[in-house]
Design brief:
The protein is mainly alpha-helical. Helix content is 49%, strand content 5%.
Length: 569
């Protein structure tokens, strides 16, 4: 078939255009060969610089980025799937009925009584206090002006046990020389004196841990780390009430801060806060409706009842005074204020810790909105809330549930109802954490309870998550589980990480909880309480009695191996 003239013209033009383009490309290539090759090198270097600049921006935006070549070669990271977590068991019908009956059994007249401080001092007691204060003042004045005064050679009180490396070595040396290295004896708790701290105890806590060199090294390291950070007091000029509060959660009642600045006078941290002392221009406690009230906001409480919960963890007495705006209160008045603030469906984690510590286990009260509350209801409200979305990954919520069970067990000798369900729930989370969420270096997942993760290049994050998780574990595990290799490895990680960089600008919140985990572990394993502190954990935590039989060296060695599956059950 013969083509039309128009089609022939179009075909000839296409051939001409393609020939012209081919000749242009050949001429351009010949010119490039003739030109100095330095231009090509410059273009290549420019492209390389651009790539490095773009990668640098991505490094700055994402701290977890790997090396340059790794990022070029590896595929796009896929977000890990959330692991399965324990689910709390629902309450039974009889349990619901019993809880409702308990809340309705309180007469309405009792809730309408005005809140009165439990401590009403008589005029005679005030006179005795004033006379004693005057006698002490006169003695100080006489001593100050007496040129012949010299301190007594013999101390008036028993020496304070210092859990330092030297003390530990000397203690072990004495045991070895006496030929009692294989005995399973108990280590008593040393208090400051016989009468200076009536709330301290000299009762033993559990049985001695296995005589393992690894545990002995850990004991020394923990003592050194705590002593190092205890010698670094905060000050009221640079630190907020929130930071000061997290400063004394690790060391308890003996914690001191410097008033006015880094070179100010050392004062008791809790006493300063409870007296309305300002920290970076803010106060934690104020007076509202003729009651002490803990403030909430930036630099203050981050959660409702958080300050009361930390006072409870430091074992501050309910009779401890609060001096606010020229008025005298006690911690008992603050407890009453927090009871009024309970609301269903809100975060009650810290309210549970504080109220479970100070109130009897059968306490019932009415909040300011007219709702009836009890510790059982607090436990049920918290167990209904999710763990992963709670503050600090849910570790404080697990801590509160475990602590509520401990207080219930101590008061009644058994766990029933919501306490039994919470106990099972917490134990399932313990097993999950130790089996699936621990890294090779002993730290725990940097993604809390979401999935296993290890940010090797972010030690702050590792200390944050591991310190919180370990704090909950060592406060809730049974005594024998504290000697398992996984708990020892976690304590080693925290103690070593903090001891390696004592001058690092750690975040005060994670640092406080990490130090608290070491303090709890030190007390529960070796019975050592910081000088001047109050005993926090007496006896077994949640059941299992410590086995008193001696263990062979081979059993101890197997129990401390890093990959021993027998200790993970």
């Amino acid at each position: 078939m013969q083509q039309s003239p128009l089609a022939n013209d179009f075909k000839e033009k296409r051939v001409q255009h393609s020939s012209f383009a081919r000749r242009q490309i050949q001429q351009w290539v010949m010119k490039c060969r003739a030109v100095n090759r330095s231009a090509t090198v410059a273009v290549f270097l420019g492209a390389l610089v651009c790539i490095v600049f773009v990668e640098g921006l991505s490094f700055a935006a994402t701290p977890r980025s790997g090396r340059f070549l790794d990022r070029l070669l590896r595929a796009t990271e896929v977000t890990p799937q959330l692991i399965s977590v324990p689910v709390p068991r629902p309450p039974t019908t009889s349990e619901r009925r019993a809880g409702q009956k308990k809340l309705l059994s309180v007469p309405a007249e009792e809730e309408k009584k005005p809140i009165v401080s439990a401590d009403i001092y008589s005029w005679e007691s005030f006179v005795r206090f004033a006379e004693g204060f005057q006698n002490v003042g006169e003695h100080v004045v006489r001593v100050a002006v007496d040129p012949s005064y010299s301190p007594d050679d013999k101390p008036q009180f028993e020496p304070i046990f210092d859990a330092s490396e030297l003390a530990v070595i000397e203690e072990q040396r004495a045991l070895s020389s006496a030929g009692r290295a294989s005995e399973r004896t108990q280590t008593p708790i040393r208090a400051t004196s016989i009468s200076s701290n009536p709330y301290a105890s000299k009762k033993s806590i559990g049985a001695m841990p296995p005589k393992s060199p690894r545990l002995q090294r850990l004991r020394v390291r923990i003592a050194q780390t705590l002593a190092t950070y205890q010698r670094r007091p905060m000050n009221t000029s640079h630190h907020s009430p929130w930071e000061i509060m997290h400063g004394f959660v690790g060391f308890g009642i003996p914690t001191k801060i410097r008033a006015g600045g880094p070179r100010g006078e050392l004062v008791n941290a809790i006493g300063w806060m409870n007296s309305g002392g300002r920290c970076r221009g803010q106060v934690m406690l104020t007076v509202r409706d003729n009651k002490p009230h803990a403030l909430y906001g930036v630099g203050l409480q981050g959660h409702s009842a958080q300050y009361l919960a930390i006072l409870a963890q430091c074992r501050v007495s309910a009779k401890s005074p609060l001096l606010l705006d020229g008025q005298n209160f006690t911690v008992a008045n603050l407890i009453e204020d927090e009871k009024l603030n309970c609301r269903s469906g809100t975060e009650l984690t810290f309210a549970l810790i504080g109220l479970a510590h100070y109130l009897p286990t059968d306490a019932v009260w009415r909040s300011s909105d007219g709702e009836m509350w009890s510790l059982d209801r607090l436990m049920q409200e918290e167990i209904n809330q999710p763990i992963r979305t709670a503050p600090c990954g849910g570790t404080h919520r697990l801590f509160s549930l475990a602590y509520g069970c401990q207080r219930r067990l101590r008061a009644t000798g058994k766990l029933d109802g919501v306490y039994q369900r919470a106990n099972i729930y917490v134990r399932e989370y313990q097993n999950l954490t130790l089996r699936r969420l621990q890294n090779r270096d002993g730290s725990f997942s940097t993604e809390w309870f979401k999935y296993p993760d290890d940010r090797d290049d972010d030690v702050d994050r590792k200390v944050q998550t591991t310190g919180h998780i370990l704090e909950w574990l060592v406060a809730s595990l049974d005594q024998e589980r504290l000697y398992e290799n996984r708990i020892i490895a976690a304590a080693e990680f925290i103690a070593t990480a903090l001891a390696r960089e004592p001058g690092r600008n750690w975040k005060d919140g994670p640092l406080g909880h990490a130090l608290h985990s070491l303090s709890i572990y030190q007390e529960r394993v070796w019975g050592v309480v910081l000088p001047g502190n109050v005993v926090a954990f007496t006896g077994p935590m949640k059941a299992a009695v410590t086995v008193g039989l001696a263990r062979s060296d081979e059993e101890i060695r197997q129990a401390t191996l890093p990959n021993n599956d027998k200790t993970r059950q």
